[in-house]
Amino acid sequence: MKLKYLAIFGLVAIVTVGCTKEVSSTPINNQPESVANVNASVVQSESFKTLEHKTQGKVSIVTENGNRYLELGNNFKTDHGPDLLVILYRGDKPPNYNIKKKDYISIASLKKTRGSQRYALPKNVKLSDFGSVGIWCRRFNVSFGYAGLSK
C-alpha cells in the first residue's frame, strides 16, 4: 500500500515539475534588450494608411551606430496574407494593385502581422528616392497599406 502512494506521489511530482513553464524577465521599458541598451536616433516617424487591407500603426526610420533601420511600432497591425513584404515604393502612395517591379525595392518578408519589428535598410539605398513604405502581397500584387516618407 505504501508503494502505491509513493508511486502516485512521484507521478504527481513529475507532472507538476514538468508542466511548469519558465518565466523570463522583461526590461522595465518593455523594449527588447537589443534595442533598449543602444543609443538610437529616430530620423522620421509616420503612420500607416489602409489600402486593400486594414493596416495601422507607426513606422520609423532609425539610425543606430551608422546603420539605418525601418522599425514598425508596437501598435503595428495588418491582416494576414500570403507572401507579405515590406517595401520602399518610389511614389508617395503605392497603387492598390499591380505594382511594377521598377517602382519598388523589397526590404524583407514581413516577420509578423502585429507588433514591433525591425528591418535593416541596405547602405546603398537612398531614402530620398522613395516616397513611401508599403506592406505588399507579392503573390497577388496587392498593397495592404502604406506610410509616407518625408523627402
Keywords, please?
151 residues; alpha+beta; five-stranded antiparallel beta sheet; four-stranded antiparallel beta sheet; 2 helices
Write a concise synopsis of the structure shown.
With 151 residues, this protein is of the alpha+beta class. Helix content is 15%, strand content 36%.
Can you describe what's shown?
With 151 residues, the chain is an alpha+beta fold. It has helices spanning 2-19, 33-36, and strands spanning 41-47, 49-50, 55-56, 58-64, 67-72, 77-78, 84-89, 104-109, 117-120, 132-137, 142-148. The protein has one domain (40-148). Helices cover 15% and strands 36% of the residues. A hairpin with a 4-residue loop joins strand 10 (132-137) and strand 11 (142-148). The chain is globular. The model is unreliable at 11-37 (pLDDT under 50).
What secondary-structure arrangement, pairings included, does this model have?
Layout: H1 2-19, H2 33-36, E1 41-47, E2 49-50, E3 55-56, E4 58-64, E5 67-72, E6 77-78, E7 84-89, E8 104-109, E9 117-120, E10 132-137, E11 142-148
Antiparallel strand pairs: 1-4, 2-11, 3-6, 4-5, 5-9, 7-8, 7-10, 10-11
